[in-house]
Amino acid sequence: MTPLLIGLLVFLINLVALGLVPERRRPSSAMAWLLLIFFLPGVGLLLFLLIGSPYVPRRRREEQRRAGDLIRAGLAEVPALPASPDRPDWLDPVMVLNRRLAWMPAVQYNSAELFSDYEDSIRAKADLVRTAERYVHVEYFMICRDATSEPFIAALLEVAGRGVKVRVLFDHLSTIGLPGHKELLATFDRAGIEWHPMLPIQPLKGQWRRPDLRNHRKIVVVDGRTGFVGSQNMIDASYHKKKHEANGRKWRELTTRVEGPVVQSLNLVFASDWFIETNERLRDYVQTEEFPADQGDMTCQIVPSGPGFPDENNLRLFNALIYGAQERLSITSPYFVPDESLLYAITTAAQRGVAVELFVSEKGEQLMVSHAQSSYYRYLLEAGVRIFRYPYPFVLHAKHFSVDDHTAVIGSSNMDIRSFNLDFEVSMMCTGGSFVTKMREVEDSYRSVSRELTLAEWKKRPLTQRWLDNVMRLTSAVQ
Q: For 88, 207, 221, 455, which has the most beta carbons within 10 A of its beta carbon?
């Protein structure tokens, strides 16, 4: 091919990309893609065709819409807002927004217990599973049978053996490469446990999509009355990576055991994912049983999010709460790569006098994300945000934040563009002073072992690191 023809082809590629790439995409993301295509036309175009669309196939979007319609119909009689008088007035519109975007109502009379110890959390989940009388629903980004997860796996096998219906969902690409995966599925089959991969990529079966879309949710539900939600996968704290085992590197998590009517909403998230993967409508899709008013003092709302939804449900929730903060905002996110709206919300809170703190790991385990995250630190510090770095070799993988003394959010969602656009997530918003007090104790424990980063220190970092941070920040926008 002559240079003239090559030049003409590159020009046509760039011309088409200029009108195609920005469609339904943030300007920052569109610019990052266009820069990649303009500077590396062949590679950029190939990557865009492979991972350029954050949308799941039309069939899956239609199935999710049908699931949403079923849930809305089943919950039509649930009041728009709970009657609890112990919340700020500005939270009511947030609850309305959540329900409009993500189907689930805010409900009263819940209780919760936090677990920050990795193995204690897994044992507590195993103990909960053993109480099952009707069913156990399990959904994980990663599930692996190892010495750490064995109590939980054993509990699933035990209750399945006495006739309890056990259903398991796991993210396909994130789980298939884990040690003993095929053996675990064979064990499930022998025990009569139903399992399905989420977002499978199986071209020979006609299943294909953007390969880096993930179902990142972590859910356990027992009998629709008690459940777990949080950041923890069902796997050893080293994730079976040799370099982590050699360095003593382990993940720090936060999960919550929740009891009350909000568990029915958590169950509906599982049921909708099960429906999308199997086209099977569960008999216990919507429950109507009553819970005692003295069950607990928390009002809770489940907010699912992901590329199958037309709006970024988690991002809208986070922004709404952050703008409502009056006194204190404490954020924990292992992967903190905010979009413009979230960055402005957080820095605006600090600039208007809210005490804002951010807990992150001292050293991230993902090079590109770690550098992209670092590129925001100076802007945050200059706005008055205090940044605390959890000490190496641990990875602070917990995902939660608290607002003033009345509201907290915990779940699977990071505060990064991936969690807002590419991952299916689940978050639980809770109002109630007792829960926030428990969350404060966890945050205090982080602060007691972390080192605070200062603006003066950050300005002294090498020019090469600043350059790399900024380059990686550009890559984070290629979504």
A: 221
pTM (predicted TM-score):
0.92
Kindly state the tokens that stand for 254: 């936060």
Token pair, residue 73, equals 């119909």
* C-beta of residue 436 within 8 angstroms of C-beta of residue 256: no
Identify residue 139 by its one-letter amino acid code.
E
Output b/e per residue, 346-384; b: 16+ Cβ within 10 A. Answer: bbebbeeebebbbbbbbebbeeebbbbbbbbbeebbebb
What's the pLDDT band for 41 if we cut at 50, 70, 90? confident
What is the distance of C-alpha 369 from the center of its chain? 16
- Please state the rounded mean pLDDT for residues 145-160: 98
CA distance 254 to 116: 5
User: Which of 236-244's residues contact partners 24+ apart within 8 Å by CB, and which partners?
Assistant: 236/144, 236/146, 236/147, 236/148, 236/149, 237/118, 237/119, 237/148, 239/142, 240/144, 240/146, 240/178, 240/179, 244/365, 244/393
Maximum Cα–Cα distance across the chain = 79
**Residue pointed to by tokens 């926030």:** 436
| Contact by Cβ (8 Å): 47, 36 | yes
Q: Are 175 and 199 in contact (CB under 8 A)?
A: no
pLDDT digits (tens, 9 = 90+) for 324-342: 999 999 999 999 999 999 9
Angle between helices 91-102 and 313-324 (to 10 degrees): 180
Two tokens at 286?
């919507």
End-to-end CA separation in angstroms for the chain: 32
Cis peptide before 393, with omega less than 30 degrees from 0?
yes
The pLDDT tens digits of the residues spanning 338-351 come to: 999 999 999 999 99
445 CB contacts (<8 Å, ≥6 apart)? 116
CA distance 71 to 74: 5
Q: Determine contact, residues 336/360, Cβ cutoff 8 Å.
A: yes
pLDDT of residue 5: 77
Query: At a CB cut-off of 8 Å and minimum separation 6, what does 329 contact?
Result: 322, 346, 349, 354, 355, 356, 357, 401, 402, 403, 404
Distance CA 54, CA 23 (A): 12
Q: How confident is the model at residue 137 (pLDDT cuts 50, 70, 90)?
A: very high
Give the pLDDT confidence score for residue 29 in this predicted structure.
Answer: 74
**Spatial contact of 122 and 255, defined as CB atoms under 8 Å apart:** no
Neighbours of 441 (CB within 10 A): 11
Bridge partner residues of 258 (DSSP): 112, 227
Q: Which of 19, 142, 173, 21 is nearest to 479 (CA)?
A: 21
Is beta strand 219-222 parallel, antiparallel or unpaired with respect to 165-171?
A: unpaired
Q: In this structure, what are the phi and psi dihedrals at residue 238, rounded to the nearest 5 degrees?
A: -90, -5
